[in-house]
Amino acid sequence: MSDPETLAARAAVYDDMKERCAAIGLKMYEFGEFIGVSKTTIPKWRSVGTPPYALNILQMLETYGVPASWKVSRARPEPTNADALDAIRKAATAVIDDAIGKGWSRQQIAFALRALADETDPRRT
């Protein structure tokens, strides 16, 4: 079991992520569905820690934006910038798959995703 300080830090990261999702118009389960994570898994992140890839994908969504009309449902409508979002998803998936294949740690994967964000976003120079 983790110490109280670690649990508090993990909860703070989770709460910050929840606020950031709300700021771009997404609920946590919608964000989870976007990145392919079960809505029952996301609440567990509050105690076990939020994976770095989730924070990096959230950063990309904040950077490129999510249309206010886009809501996830069983029959999800295509977002107005579907090509950009699909490109982000494919690039992030490729980086993660490659890193897992190389046996990288979560921290190394997070650095690789940050590097991808730096390459693709001109404002991050």
UniProtKB/TrEMBL annotation:
Source superkingdom: Bacteria
SUPFAM superfamilies: lambda repressor-like DNA-binding domains
GO molecular function ontology, one term from the record: DNA binding
Matching CDD domains: HTH_XRE (cd00093)
Protein name: Transcriptional regulator with XRE-family HTH domain
Species in which this protein is naturally found: Aureimonas phyllosphaerae
